[in-house]
Each structure stands twice: as structure tokens, then as C-alpha cells.
Design goal:
- The complex is a heterodimer.
- Chain A contains 16 helices and two strands.
- Chain A has helices at 2-11, 19-41, 46-55, 61-67, 70-74, 84-110, 113-123, 131-161, 164-168, 175-205, 207-216, 222-255, 262-265, 268-292, 295-298, 301-319; strands spanning 80-82, 171-173.
- Chain A has a two-stranded parallel ribbon.
- Chain B is mostly helical.
- Chain B contains six helices and three strands.
- Chain B is elongated.
- The two termini of chain B are 24 Å apart.
- Classes of the chains: A mainly alpha, B mainly alpha.
- The interface between A and B is medium-sized, with 19 and 21 residues.
Chain lengths: 320, 118
């Protein structure tokens, strides 16, 4: 049933929702649903029934005059069709670049780990090197890792650059393509869900080292090392999530659902807010950390910012 | 399947004929057209709906909301007096059209023409 509704929504995409149009849509939907139920009762499979209903729907051009939407329909070619090949190419590219993007993120998250580990070890007096040279070495490592990570992003994100319009613009898929994408999404569901599970467990467990180690052993230096452990867990959880959610995300982009729904695409305000929001958070994080030098605490801004962002998004979505 | 170009001018006639017996709604009409023609003609939903709207604005039919069944409230259509008049005219027109076209269709027993065709 949803497929029929989606099909009709797609047909009426970009057409002003006048009273006439809304009435037409409702009545057409009623006819299609009646036909669908009867075909199902006659023993057709769901796919056969949907296929017949859609093939007998006809053409919106016929309604152009009666609904006074002639001009809109003539200009409707502005809404691009995404071909089957293009859609499959996008999923393929998303899948193949995912491990590389994930690696880039992994390197960036891991970048301060050497610094933290070496500081911890030296506080424990396990290594006896002057602190200045220690910091110099680990900062060098940090910068190298970030550089490697960022260069990874740039190199592989260019593969997906061509497809950016899928995330930005409203488009249409033909029925066959849409079905194919839905199948892929369904097949990927299991692996996506277990990946999310594993990563969420990782994100929860990552708090343990910071809480438990300093509680059990009151040795200075250990707390710094425990942060390093936390970061390592976060890094791998994130790597796993990015890597395994690529197909799921790509399918959502193609089906224009979730974050990529037609509604949120047209919601320019929430897009602007999210851009500004994250820049401000980065500025606060860097500013606070450099001024107070309290790097061991300042990272807390990230989980807080994440939750706050969800709240802001819910509000802006609700308002629009 | 019949080409829709030919039949377009007579979609209204078919719908009005069905509405003569009793008021009806979209799917039922399309189903009865399919059944009456032994599935030789299947009317598209968009064709049917645009015919409804056109005839409604011409005053041939009137829309009204039916009682709710299974949580669905359907739009029913009934034929008006103007509609009946229009239907009669269309029937007359078709008879003439049929006679005219018929003159140009080769008869089965017309051996001379059938030979030229084969």
C-alpha cells in the first residue's frame, strides 16, 4: 500500500497543493487502493498487484487541464530523473569509499592517542624523557595522523562529489529502480542493524575506562591513559559505523527518506542551522581547550553537542 | 487493446451509461467498463478522473460523498438531466459515426477487396 502512496506522491512532486490537486490525489489514491485490494483478493502477489495498478494509472498530463496545473507539468522536467545505472553506481561508490572515509575518521580520532599515552607513561615514570620533547614528538604524530586522515577524505570524497546533488535536490526514480533500491536496503538491513548495535555498545562502554580505572587505582597518569583507551574504543566504533552504514545511507538518499526526505531538503533553515551549529561548537571546543589547557575535560562538549543538536533539529523540524 | 485515441471521445458516454442505472464511484466504474468490454478496454485512473472533472464542470454529473465503508469515504457520482440529454446526443452521434466508418471497412464476404488485401 505504501508503495502506491509513494508512487502517487512522486507523480505529484513539485505540483502546488491546491484544493483541487489534493482532492484529485485523494480520489486517485482511493481508486488505486480499491484496485489493489481486489487484485490481492483475486490471488495476485503484492508485487504483481502493485505492478498492475501502476501500469494502469495513466499519465498526469491528462489531468493538467482539469486541475489547472498545465504550466507546472510542462516545467516539471526540471525535476531530474535518476536512472537505474546512476542509482546503482551511487550505491556502489558509497560502498567502496566507505572503508576509506572510515579510515580517515579513525586516524583523526586516534591522533591525540600517542600524546595521551606518552604523557600518561611519563607521569607513571615508565619513560624518562623530558616532557617538552615528549609533547613535541606526539604533536608531530598528531598532525601527521590528522593530515593522513584529511587527505584520505579529500581523495575519496571526490568519488562521491558527482552524486552530491542526490542529497541536495529533489529527484525522481522510476518504479523499477525504486524497487531495486528497496531490495538492496532490505538485504543490507541485518548487517546495518548489527553494526549499529556493536557501535552503540562501543559508545556506551567507552565511558568505562575513564570512570573505572581512576576509581580503582588512584595512580596519577592512569587517568590520562584511560582517556586514550576511551578514544581508541570510540575510534573503532565510529569506523565500524561509517563503514557498515554506507549502503543504508545511500539507499535512504536515493529513496529520499529519513534525513534526505523531500520535506527536509526544502527546509533551508535547518540546513543553515546545522552548518553554523557545528562550526560554533568546533570554535568553542578549540577556544576553551587552548585557553584553559583543559584538554582532558573539554572533549565532553562532543557528546553534549550531539544530543543538543538532535534537540535543536527536532525543534526546527517541528516549527517548519 | 484499443488505441485510446479512438475511444477518447466516448469515455464520457461509457461513464454516463453506467451512471444511468445507479450512482457509482471511481473504481466501480473502471471495473464495470473492464468487465463489460471483456477486458478489451481498461480505462486509466487519470483518464477516468479527468472525465469526472470535465463532466462535473459541464453539469453532466454531480459528485457527492458516500457513506463511510471500511473507514473510507468515497466520492460518488450521479448523472444529471443535462447529462442524460448529452448522453442521448452522444448515442445519436455514435450511430452516425458507426455508419460512416462502416462504409470504409471491408466486409468479410467482399471477395474482391479481400483478395487485394491478402
Amino acid at each position: 500500500m505504501n508503495t502506491i502512496r509513494n508512487y502517487l506522491d512522486n507523480m505529484f512532486l513539485g505540483i502546488p497543493q491546491t484544493d483541487d490537486v489534493i482532492r484529485a490525489k485523494m480520489e486517485l489514491l482511493a481508486m488505486m487502493e480499491d484496485k489493489y485490494s481486489e487484485l490481492k483478493n483475486a490471488g495476485k502477489t503484492e508485487n504483481e498487484a502493485i505492478g498492475i495498478v501502476i501500469s494502469e494509472f495513466g499519465n498526469l498530463d491528462e489531468l493538467a487541464d482539469t486541475l489547472g496545473i498545465k504550466e507546472v507539468i510542462e516545467n516539471k522536467t526540471d525535476i531530474s530523473m535518476v536512472s537505474y545505472d546512476e542509482a546503482m553506481q551511487y550505491i556502489e561508490n558509497s560502498k567502496s569509499t566507505a572503508p576509506k572515509t572510515a579510515l580517515g575518521v579513525l586516524l583523526c580520532i586516534l591522533s591525540p592517542v600517542t600524546l595521551l599515552l606518552l604523557l600518561g607513561l611519563s607521569e607513571l615514570n615508565l619513560i624518562t624523557v623530558k616532557e617538552e620533547s615528549l609533547i613535541a614528538v606526539s604533536l608531530a604524530v598528531l598532525i601527521c595522523l590528522v593530515a593522513a586522515g584529511v587527505s584520505h577524505f579529500i581523495r575519496f570524497s571526490s568519488k562521491l562529489e558527482r552524486f552530491e546533488y542526490l542529497q541536495e535536490n529533489v529527484f525522481e526514480l522510476d518504479y523499477k529502480t525504486e524497487q531495486a533500491v528497496r531490495n538492496i536496503l532490505e538485504q543490507d538491513e541485518q548487517s546495518y542493524k548489527s553494526a549499529v548495535n556493536i557501535s552503540v555498545i562501543g559508545y556506551i562502554l567507552c565511558a568505562l575506562p575513564v570512570i573505572i580505572i581512576p576509581l580503582m587505582l588512584e595512580i596519577e597518569g592512569l587517568s590520562v591513559i584511560s582517556i586514550a583507551v576511551t578514544l581508541i574504543i570510540v575510534a573503532f566504533a565510529t569506523y565500524n559505523l561509517i563503514n557498515k552504514s554506507a549502503v543504508h545511507e545511500a539507499c535512504n538518499v536515493l529513496l529520499q527518506q529519513g534525513d534526505y526526505s523531500i520535506k527536509s531538503k526544502s527546509n533551508k533553515i535547518s540546513k543553515t542551522i546545522s552548518k553554523v551549529y557545528w562550526l560554533v561548537i568546533v570554535a568553542i571546543y578549540l577556544g576553551y581547550s587552548f585557553i584553559t589547557n583543559n584538554w582532558t575535560m573539554s572533549w565532553i562538549i562532543w557528546p553534549i553537542a550531539g544530543v543538543l543538536f538532535a534537540a535543536i533539529k527536532a525543534i526546527t523540524d517541528g516549527l517548519s | 487493446m484499443i488505441s485510446s485515441d479512438v475511444i477518447r471521445g466516448y469515455n464520457d458516454t461509457m461513464i454516463l451509461y453506467l451512471l444511468l442505472s445507479e450512482p457509482s464511484y471511481g473504481y466501480e466504474i473502471s471495473k464495470r467498463i473492464r468487465e463489460l468490454t471483456d477486458e478489451k478496454y481498461v480505462i486509466k485512473e487519470t483518464t477516468l478522473y479527468s472525465a469526472f472533472k470535465r463532466m462535473e464542470s459541464n453539469g453532466y454529473i454531480e459528485a457527492f460523498l458516500g457513506s463511510e465503508t471500511y473507514g473510507k469515504q468515497r466520492t460518488y457520482y450521479k448523472i444529471t438531466e443535462t447529462g442524460k440529454k448529452y448522453y442521448k446526443e452522444k448515442c445519436k452521434e455514435w450511430k452516425i459515426t458507426k455508419e460512416v466508418i462502416e462504409k470504409f471497412i471491408v466486409k468479410e464476404n467482399d471477395h474482391e477487396y479481400n483478395q487485394k488485401l491478402s
